[in-house]
Amino acid sequence: MIKPEILAPAGSLEKLKIAIDFGADAVYIGGGRLNLRAFSDNFTNEEMAEGVKYCHDRGKKLYVTMNVFPRNHDLKGVEEYIKGLYDLGIDAIIAADPSIVMAAKIAAPDLEIHLSTQANTVNWMATKFWYEQGVKRVVLARELTLNEINVIKENIPEDCELEVFIHGSMCIAYSGRCLISNYMLGRDANKGICSNACRYKYYLVEETRPGEYYPVVEDDNGTYIMNSKDLCMIKHIPELIKSGIHSLKIEGRMKSEFYVASVVKAYREAVDSYIANPEGYEFKQEWMDTLLKISHRQYHTGFFFGKTGEQNYDVSSYVRDYDIVGIVQSYDPETKEATILQKNRVFEGDVVEVLRAHTPNFNVKLDEMFDVEKKVKTNVANRAHMVFKAKVETPLKEKDMLIKGKKVLEL
């Protein structure tokens, strides 16, 4: 049985560390060039070097995305860039275009190449083709069913690795190749500057009746014919592991620290639970509860079990029932004071939930708040990234994440 890697998104150095701390086996990041998240906090060389060290010191891996479809002018200096990545010690690049694959083989022959889902690999012959071009791992297209993935696995070399997305947003385009954003706003989704135009509200207009707008479905807000649900496979870990997939990938380099911590925590616990005791494995509702607290659209299982219900017909907004309000920097067991970095507004007396790696969530109350910078007592932490102290009876740990629901909690 293959124990699959849990691969987490890291849109910043802080998120990278959170992903690793909460149990990711590897992270994928964007560097300064040629990745499809131009608006995330892409890494400088210095940050990348620190990220590589943080991962490697803990036995984890770091991959760099280079998954755009480059035009001729984009290729200038690409070999030097890849060589620089290799020298920094990254573990692999994720490429979609043959030009990047070719450049990597020339510039850094020993560097692992992973093929992006953008390459639309949907069958075993294509998978084998890329393997023969020097690709170590293929990230399969999201359109595949689990049965199709099993067929691919049965027909490729044993050391050819497969990776699939198991959680997060779904592109409404064939494996993410989208022209809507470019057409409407001049922002090319295939070069990392997607406008998320598929999330807009759309109506139909018949050409001989300009100005008359026709909603296609049920409600007063219009239709959402291109709004996908979010992928969530937390209830199907046994099926994923039995298929022999090497890497379970989480979408979301532009998502929050709260998202990264929660999703990694849930899937880490589920995978470890199955690997430890396949016969006695039982799904735990607390894993789904963790995933329901983050910002998300309605969850579904994508195409894994057939093409059913992949459209989100009834809502265009995200569900946001919880916010991250702080990250613990330290805790003094003698004074019972926690030093906390503020992330969202939180009040003295609030009961918050503690999100901690490898530990069930629990609630604590924040008492006797103190503004560290202004050196005064306060009843609210409402400045961005302010550092404050609070008395907390239950011991906390550095990097504990404090989250707060929209509904009032009580101890």
Low-pLDDT stretches: 309-316
Spatial strand sequence of the major β-sheet? 1-2-3-4-5-6-7-9
Strand content: 15-25%
Helix share of residues? Answer: 10-25%
Please give the radius of gyration in angstroms.
23 Å
Number of separate domains:
3
- Please identify the top-level CATH class of the largest domain: Alpha Beta
Return the CATH topology of the largest domain. TIM Barrel
Number of helices: 10
Which CATH architecture of the largest domain would you pick?
Answer: Alpha-Beta Barrel
Mean pLDDT: 89
- Which structural class do you get from the secondary structure elements? alpha/beta
Largest sheet: 8 strands, parallel, barrel
End-to-end distance: 43 Å
Shape: globular
Total count of strands: 20
CATH superfamily of the largest domain: Aldolase class I
**What string gives the helices and strands in order?**
EHEHEHEHEHEHEHEHEHHEEEEEEEEEEE
Protein name: U32 family peptidase
Family: Belongs to the peptidase U32 family.
GO molecular function: peptidase activity
Keywords: Hydrolase, Protease
Helix and strand arrangement:
Layout: E1 5-9, H1 13-21, E2 26-30, H2 45-57, E3 61-66, H3 78-88, E4 92-95, H4 98-107, E5 112-115, H5 124-132, E6 137-139, H6 146-154, E7 161-168, H7 180-185, E8 230-232, H8 237-242, E9 247-250, H9 257-276, H10 285-293, E10 299-300, E11 322-332, E12 337-342, E13 346-347, E14 351-356, E15 359-365, E16 367-371, E17 376-377, E18 380-381, E19 387-391, E20 401-405
Parallel strand pairs: 1-2, 1-9, 2-3, 3-4, 4-5, 5-6, 6-7, 7-9, 8-10
Antiparallel strand pairs: 7-8, 11-12, 11-20, 12-19, 13-18, 14-15, 14-20, 16-17, 16-19
Helix pairs in contact: 1-2, 1-9, 3-4, 9-10
